[in-house]
Amino acid sequence: MTPAARISAAIGILDQLLDGAPAERALLRWSRASRFAGSGDRAAVRDLVFDALRQRKSLAALGGGLSGRGLMIGLCRRDGADPAQVFTGEGYAPAPLTPEERHPLPPPADDLPDWLRPQWRASLGADSAAVAGMMALRAPVWLRHNPQRGSLPEAVAMLEGDGIVVARDGRLATALQVTAGERKISGSRAYQDGLVELQDLSPQLACAALPTAAGMRVLDFCAGGGGKALALAARSPELRIEAHDVDPARMGDLPARARRARAQIEPVRRPSGRYGLVIADVPCSGSGTWRRSPDAKWRLTPEGLEQLRMTQAAILDQVADLVAADGHLAYMTCSLLEAENQAQIARFLGRNQDFQQLTGSLWTPIDASDGFFLALLRRGRQ
Ligand SMILES: C[S@@+](CC[C@H](N)C(=O)[O-])C[C@H]1O[C@@H](n2cnc3c(N)ncnc32)[C@H](O)[C@@H]1O
Asked: How many separate domains does the chain show?
């Protein structure tokens, strides 16, 4: 496909998204209908769509309106290209610019939904503008080294052998930032043999901060794909880890991931008894991961956020009784919003006076990678 044909494809997909279709579904539909598109074309169209969603408001202003065309015209202008050279109407190129599209408007101050801005600012204070700016850019890819499957030098050498270059991070021995070859990860030997797993830096830092002891029963209550359970198993194979999810289908990938990592993780339908550590990695707005899922930023509504806050509070109340005396509860979100983080914990502590908060950590793209929150609580007053 020519660059202009890729832009035409992105325009069609973006129009579907603006009509309410989820990004992944619209991309899949286009892929299936476009057998002529090679893997390079698919990756390029996907990048165009996601780049446009990250900066939806500013590109719409630059491109003359909120439409697939407006966003792609804005993207051309943002990148210093003349859209008239691309929008020629020749071959598979999009139709020439209309008079309105020839005149960009000044871009807005940030790429946040208007209703959310006050909360965003209150949650992030002096960092709010910088973090909003970073959320409009692509996110780096991180791997977590699994020492149970091979040494770090072995993992790095295997990755390099498959064309994947990584940089170590001073904050955490297991964290590797991918600097080249990210699209080759899932086919690489190091990944398939379980020496590395995909996991962002911030949840890695959170999991590394969890208190564990040999033989401890651990429950990952909202396990989903099992990212937190797998990180703990890689760190401490002697733990007895159980994984639960209200929707067991969400744990569908976990057995294969655990096999690759040689991790012992037992799926449980109904957690019972008491656990030394309960992880509640609750459903959230995902506002810390909007670089990776930028359409979620535009799909979130005040009502949706309120619904999430109610679910989070209900999960906290549900897991409280599963925590052993002197055991720990780790509340996690990939959100930057105070309402889902510290405010949620403050209310839980008001309802559950046998818990105390030990730590509260908020990672943002300024100091780590994705936005991520961890509150570590202990049951028992001292
Ligand atoms: C943020 S995701 C978990 C991500 C996962 N821990 C990981 O690291 O890959 C939240 C999960 O919570 C689950 N969930 C939602 N409501 C729940 C509830 N009431 N009890 C348990 N799990 C719930 C969802 O199905 C979803 O898989």
From this structure: 3
Taking CA atoms only, the protein residue closest to ligand 1 atom 13 is: 222
Q: Kindly state whether residue 327 falls inside one of the protein's structural domains.
A: yes
The answer, yes or no, to whether any atom of ligand 1 lies below 6 A from the CB of 231, is no
Q: Is 334 a catalytic residue?
A: yes
Closest CA to 54 of 117, 139, 137: 137
Residue 132 lies in a domain: no
State which residues form the domain around 272: 209-379
Which ipTM was obtained for this model?
0.99
User: Is residue 31 assigned to a domain?
Assistant: yes
CA of 271 to the centre of ligand 1 (A): 14
Ligand 1 centre to CA of 148 (Å) is 26
pTM for this model (two decimals): 0.94
Condensed to tens digits (0 to 9), the pLDDT of residues 150-180 reads: 999 999 999 999 999 999 999 999 999 999 9
For 355, the token pair is 């818990």
Claim to verify: residue 70 and residue 183 sit in the same structural domain: no
pLDDT digits (tens, 9 = 90+) for 257-313: 999 999 999 999 999 999 999 999 999 999 999 999 999 999 999 999 999 999 999
Q: Is residue 114 part of a domain?
A: no
Atom 16 (ligand 1): residue with closest C-alpha?
246
Cα separation, 202 vs 369, in Å, equals: 6
Residues 6+ apart with CB under 8 A from 157: none
